[in-house]
């Protein structure tokens, strides 16, 4: 037998053994499943598309996390650490101060998410554009609209998560924050005192002299009531914690003089002198009344409250301005969290139009500029509602509508190119 015939016989033997092995029941099921997967995935190219889409998601989410940490630290330092520093300087309990910091986190998270979406998506998509990765997607058969889909989905997911924080965790944190602040003020009332300062307390303005511990060198209080104005001047005074229910703190004043003048008749007045007198500061004066504020409510609670206020406003027109403020708080529950989806569309269009060269750097710069402008529009909108009484819906949603308009405009330009 020649060597050629020996090889031929060996191949035939191996082939017969493989055929016999493939007829076993277990092996037949495995082969059948393997062929199904090959037909389902590889033939249609779904595996390739899945890998590319997964890459877009991962890159977008990674840059979002980095940007989120950046904005989180900015808001954290600007709004929380200053408060914490002031509380610690006034000898407030350390554990309570840490809890105050923790209860403030939902507000920081809700504020940071939309801006992180804009900057993170701009840097991610701009980097893909400048590194020619978008050419790879286009060569693989991806249209710009198909690349937009994972961007929009992730933006929507961030909006929903941010809305949950804004609608549930923020009211819960605010309630606990206010409750804890009452406890801190009761135990350490001097946290509200600052040397040579003016403090507003409800309808009163307090001019505070030199502060040493819980002792104040002198006080001047301007108090305005419905029927009279009062001027209270006191010498050395001490600030004490609450000694009765409903009282947050009290001033024990020495050598005080009280001048009361009737508003309707300025020529009628009363003067009272006292060696010792007590001025009670009620908890509603510093922390508001016991009724829940709009920030302490979910959208469900706000909806019920606004519905009741609308019925009352029809009878009393003076309530319409207050109603407009509550409607503003209602729309704020939605406008900022769902700003992420507007920013996602905006980032997609801007990154592909202007990110050909140095996409990440341009994305970071444009993102920060747009964030500042968006924040300014938000503040202006709230001021217009509070001071001018303009329509709350338009004042709160205009920043998102402006971003959405330019996102749509740039997207049309991108598709035409």
Please explain how this structure is put together.
The chain is of the alpha+beta class and 417 residues long. Helices cover 67% and strands 15% of the residues. It is built from 13 helices and nine strands. Strands 1, 2, 3, 4, 5, 6, 7, 8 and 9 form a nine-stranded antiparallel β-sheet that branches. Helix 11 packs antiparallel against helix 12. About 5% of the residues have low confidence.
Which segments are poorly predicted (pLDDT under 50) over 5 or more consecutive residues? 26-45
What sort of overall outline do the alpha carbons produce when their principal axes are compared?
elongated
Provide the succession of SSEs: HHHHHHHEEEEEEEEEHHHHHH
Helical content stands at 55-70%
How would you classify the helix and strand content by structural class? alpha+beta
Radius of gyration: 33 Å
Distance between termini? 72 Å
Q: Sketch the major β-sheet.
A: 9 strands, antiparallel
Mean pLDDT: 78
Q: Total number of helical segments?
A: 13
Number of strands: 9
% residues in beta strands: 5-15%
How would the blueprint of this fold be written?
Layout: H1 3-22, H2 25-42, H3 46-89, H4 94-103, H5 105-130, H6 133-139, H7 144-187, E1 197-201, E2 204-208, E3 211-212, E4 215-216, E5 219-224, E6 228-234, E7 237-241, E8 247-262, E9 269-282, H8 283-287, H9 299-315, H10 320-335, H11 339-354, H12 359-388, H13 392-416
Antiparallel strand pairs: 1-2, 2-5, 3-4, 4-7, 5-6, 6-8, 7-8, 8-9
